[in-house]
Q: What sequence folds into this?
């Protein structure tokens, strides 16, 4: 009798479990560490409001994200239902993304009444498009900021010493040429009174990082009146590396000047060719450098660093001396999953990009907002000081290409720039022209 | 007419064979699916323009990928560092490994030395790389810290080609010398003790003992270790991935790392990466066969059996 009771209880439990699993839609979301923690938190909040939908968030390294995602989209296997993608991978991922423009038209009932699509920053939304179709809702409106040691710049002693050395006031640089003097001042090797070991933390490694660092220096030339006259206006498909008609725009004196600006700062940075994202964040966090161009999210790490306390007095944030670079992320849905999952996925990405979510992920995780109302929100500005600087930065930031060949162009360019900066190949227009020729070869083989 | 007993035995043998096949079938299927099929697919894709980032690719393009390799300066540049690993790191590992094997054999505290020496071999390459990142960090690394006691200014280990190459080679030597030591040590243990005693009685010096008694036995072990290290050195990847990412420039980009960059990391050019991988396979096979011929390995092993 006891045996049958246990058997019955187990059967009921199994049945209940089966019903629960069958009743719920299970979604798989793949993302990188930039977005992972915030999306995990959002998934939990979403599930509380939507108990019939489960979201499994897989956080993989940035390098692993795309091979997995692209293999899945290419194979049409639908392993991943939702994914984050970088602004410059639009051309690569678009063929596997659900057309949200069409989808939202057909299923307008799933869009919450208070979603307010007009509140989305126009550029952020545009970066979620490919050939006019919305393939991803903007999630993280990332950009690069110029972090500096406010306390050192405001210190009367250093202000006087700087003036004595350079004959002009010490201020946060607004051009890279100004940055050279300031960086020299804050480098112990060139100024024994410097409070920091190095003036600036730079990352010029032979990785993907190099490709987004170059536009910080090239952007001012590309977007100058002369640059616009010569190369045409910048469009977001080809970005600042290209002319308006899709030709490489850097194989000339402007590209060379940008590299020279980068090289001029290198003596005042700790091992720039051997430092990447993690190292430069650490250098600034430990108070070893006075300045550091970095993305928005390292602010949370700087804020909690013992060497930068009190952070409100020590961490200053300014627009880039050159121009910033867009690093947006969007949330896309695989078009190879069943309709039921597409609807559930769409509900999640709408939730994740709602006003409530945008404000909370900004405050908790430093995720740069995609909404106009959050940029203007006093609470947001109080919690995260760089929010105030964002509108100006968004108007002037540069773009990497978004075409499918972008990864191959990056691979070639990272090596070339690294070797030019290291002096292994001559830093001349001829070398840049050789690079441009390789670009043309890649572009023509599409 | 086959006797009934023999027939019964044949039936039992066939039945046993069928059962055995059934048992190994899952492993065989797994091997076919996880190893053979991907390998054959890789050969196929090497003749296509398959690129995950571009739709409409995957068409047959013949030998274009292979011809492209010889016009690709980045691929050619990777040969340089791969050659450095083969010609610098491997010989040093062999020399130090054999020397340590000879020195430690018979030493007091032999077991402890043996254990300590093998530790680095047990550490995965990725972990090695992470440690190296910390040790050779420009500002916070232990290497620069200890060098500062000797008045050496800070070295940008990963920022200069020469020092970046040094770091990778150094890590490879640290990690794989114990492997050579282990092989040598095992070889030394197999040298008949009575031969050593007889040589000593005859008044042989340590050097004469090594050359005339130990080395003939050790030869085959050393040759095999060399071949294994050669194949492995061509596959060097983990340390590069975790430290230099092939940079600065192409200074520390090995062939296998370049394959990763092209096919997996951010290139997604599966066709071209497959061709690169096939070339690596062909080169490895040629080098191994060449080495076997040069070292006369076949004959050496035969001699060993007869000895």
A:
């Amino acid at each position: 009798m006891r045996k049958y009771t246990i058997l019955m209880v187990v059967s009921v439990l199994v049945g209940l479990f089966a019903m629960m699993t069958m009743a719920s839609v299970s979604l798989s979301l793949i993302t990188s560490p930039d977005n992972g923690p915030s999306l995990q938190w959002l998934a939990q909040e979403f599930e509380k409001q939507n108990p019939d939908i489960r979201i499994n968030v897989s956080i993989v390294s940035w390098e692993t994200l795309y091979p997995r995602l692209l293999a899945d989209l290419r194979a049409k296997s639908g392993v991943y239902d939702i994914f984050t993608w970088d602004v410059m991978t639009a051309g690569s991922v678009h063929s596997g993304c659900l057309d949200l423009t069409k989808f939202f038209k057909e299923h307008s009932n799933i869009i919450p009444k208070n979603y307010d699509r007009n509140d989305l920053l126009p550029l952020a939304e545009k970066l979620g498009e490919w050939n006019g179709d919305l393939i991803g809702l903007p999630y993280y409106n990332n950009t690069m900021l110029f972090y500096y040691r406010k306390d050192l710049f405001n210190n009367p002693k250093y202000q006087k010493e700087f003036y004595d050395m350079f004959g002009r006031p010490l201020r946060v640089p607004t051009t890279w040429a100004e940055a050279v003097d300031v960086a020299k001042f804050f480098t112990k090797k060139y100024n024994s009174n410097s409070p920091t070991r190095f003036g600036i933390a730079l990352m010029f490694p032979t990785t993907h990082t190099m490709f987004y660092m170059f536009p910080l220096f090239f952007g001012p030339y590309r977007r100058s009146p002369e640059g616009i006259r010569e190369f045409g206006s910048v469009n977001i498909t080809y970005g600042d590396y290209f002319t308006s008609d899709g030709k490489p725009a850097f194989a000339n004196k402007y590209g060379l000047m940008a590299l020279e600006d980068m090289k001029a700062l290198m003596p005042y940075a700790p091992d720039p060719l051997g430092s990447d994202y993690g190292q430069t964040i650490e250098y600034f966090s430990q108070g070893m450098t006075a300045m550091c161009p970095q993305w928005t999210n390292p602010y949370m790490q700087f804020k909690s660093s013992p060497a930068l306390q009190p952070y409100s007095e020590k961490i200053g944030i300014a627009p880039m001396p050159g121009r910033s670079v867009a690093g947006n992320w969007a949330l896309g849905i695989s078009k190879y999953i069943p309709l039921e999952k597409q609807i559930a996925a769409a509900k999640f990405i709408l939730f994740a990009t709602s006003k409530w979510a945008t404000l909370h992920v900004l405050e908790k995780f430093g995720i740069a907002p995609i909404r106009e109302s959050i940029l203007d929100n006093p609470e947001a500005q109080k919690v995260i000081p760089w929010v105030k600087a964002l509108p100006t930065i968004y108007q002037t930031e540069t773009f990497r290409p978004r075409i499918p060949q972008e990864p191959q162009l990056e691979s070639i360019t990272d090596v070339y720039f690294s070797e030019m900066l290291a002096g292994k190949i001559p830093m001349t227009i001829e070398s840049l022209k050789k690079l441009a020729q390789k670009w043309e070869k890649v572009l023509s083989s599409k | 007419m086959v006797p009934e007993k023999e027939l019964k035995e044949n039936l039992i043998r066939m039945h046993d064979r069928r059962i055995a096949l059934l048992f190994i079938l899952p492993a065989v299927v797994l091997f076919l699916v996880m190893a053979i099929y991907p390998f054959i697919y890789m050969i196929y894709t090497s003749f296509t323009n398959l690129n995950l980032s571009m739709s409409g690719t995957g068409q047959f393009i013949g030998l274009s990928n292979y011809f492209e390799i010889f016009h690709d300066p980045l691929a050619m540049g990777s040969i340089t560092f791969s050659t450095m690993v083969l010609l610098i790191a491997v010989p040093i590992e062999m020399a130090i490994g054999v020397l340590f094997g000879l020195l430690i054999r018979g030493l007091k505290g032999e077991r402890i030395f043996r254990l300590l020496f093998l530790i680095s071999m047990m550490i995965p390459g990725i972990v090695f790389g992470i440690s190296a990142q910390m040790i050779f960090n420009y500002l916070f690394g232990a290497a620069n810290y200890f060098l500062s006691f000797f008045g050496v200014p800070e070295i940008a280990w990963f920022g200069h080609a020469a020092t970046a190459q040094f770091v990778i080679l150094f890590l490879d030597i640290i990690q794989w010398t114990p492997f050579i030591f282990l092989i040598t040590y095992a070889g030394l243990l197999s040298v008949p003790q009575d031969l050593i005693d007889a040589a000593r009685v005859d008044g042989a010096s340590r050097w004469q003992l090594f050359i005339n008694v130990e080395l003939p036995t050790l030869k085959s072990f050393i040759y095999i270790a060399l071949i294994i290290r050669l194949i492995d050195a061509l596959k060097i990847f983990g340390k590069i991935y975790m430290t230099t990412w092939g940079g600065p420039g192409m200074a520390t980009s090995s062939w296998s790392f370049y394959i990763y960059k092209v096919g997996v990391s951010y290139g997604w050019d599966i066709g071209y990466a497959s061709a690169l991988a096939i070339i690596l396979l062909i080169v490895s096979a040629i080098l191994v066969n060449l080495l076997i011929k040069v070292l006369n390995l076949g004959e050496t092993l035969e001699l060993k059996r007869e000895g």
Observations:
- Chain B has two domains: 1-36, 73-306.
- The longest helix of chain B spans residues 4-45.
- Confidence is low (pLDDT under 50) at residues 303-307 of chain B.
